[in-house]
Amino acid sequence: MAAGEFDCQVTTTTISEEQFTYTCERIRSLGLSERVTVIREDYRDLQGQYDAIVSIEMIEAIGAHHYDDYFAVAARCLKPDGRFVVQAITIDNDQYERASREVDFIKQYIFPGSCIPCEGVLRASSSRAGLVWESADDIGQHYATTLAHWRDNFLGNLAQIRELGLPASFIRMWVYYFCYCEAGFHEAYISNLQITLRNPGKSLA
Predict the structure, then answer these.
(1) Is 55 in contact with 31 (CB distance < 8 Å)?
(2) In this structure, are residues 51 and 82 in contact, taking their beta carbons and an 8 Å threshold?
(3) What pLDDT is attached to residue 180?
(4) Which of 130, 123, 148 is nearest to 82 (CA)?
């Protein structure tokens, strides 16, 4: 983790009690309690300013009506010349409006209420917050490979998974989910962008 590898101070936040507890225990086990602060609160309530902020595949869960708030919080919490790195699953610009209205397999069974943004929407929303778009790396094809490995690992551990008491229908649905997403990335219907944004503004502190 970054706190150990780069000798930096890290603050991380979550609204999940289970994730908060797990993360705190994990940090203690790694001996990083003095470098990592874990907060259990909504990201919109964050205070202070940071040299850099990283958000990995969270934006898909907040809904399109919160994109402007999301980038505004990052702009407010970044120091001048600070960087905001966003990893986001995305859909083609031409498909976004239709996809944002439809309820597909993912929205119905896996991530209810989710919304995959497109690059155009991310550019517009981040610009309204005053952030400068520096770069975007497309790692979608790598994600297809990753999903294939996740599926293989899942199928290779079915005995342990069945011991959890999960029904066969859940197992079939999860395998279908891996295959469904792998195909989407492989065919470039969806992709995954690693975006770097810069805050050129003056300090608000």
Answers:
(1) no
(2) yes
(3) 96
(4) 130
Measured CA to CA, the distance from residue 79 to residue 187 in angstroms comes to: 39
Of 8, 126, 150, nearest to 68 by C-alpha is 126
Q: Which tens digit of pLDDT belongs to each residue from 101-127?
A: 999 999 999 999 999 999 999 999 999
Query: Which portions of the chain are predicted below pLDDT 50?
Result: 203-205
Q: Alpha-carbon Rg of the chain, whole angstroms?
A: 19
pLDDT of residue 1: 62
Tokens found for residue 163 = 């011991």
Catalogue all structural domains in the chain, each as residue range(s) with its CATH number. 9-41 (no CATH), 42-198 (3.40.50.150)
**Which residue numbers are catalytic?**
181
Backbone angles phi, psi at 60, to 5 degrees: -65, -20
Residue 71 CA: distances (Å) to CA of 46, 76, 131, 146: 13, 9, 8, 28
Look at residue 204 in the predicted model and tell me its pLDDT.
47
Question: pTM value?
Answer: 0.89
Q: Retrieve residue 42's tokens.
A: 């909504």
Angle at which helices 67-77 and 119-128 cross, to 10°: 50
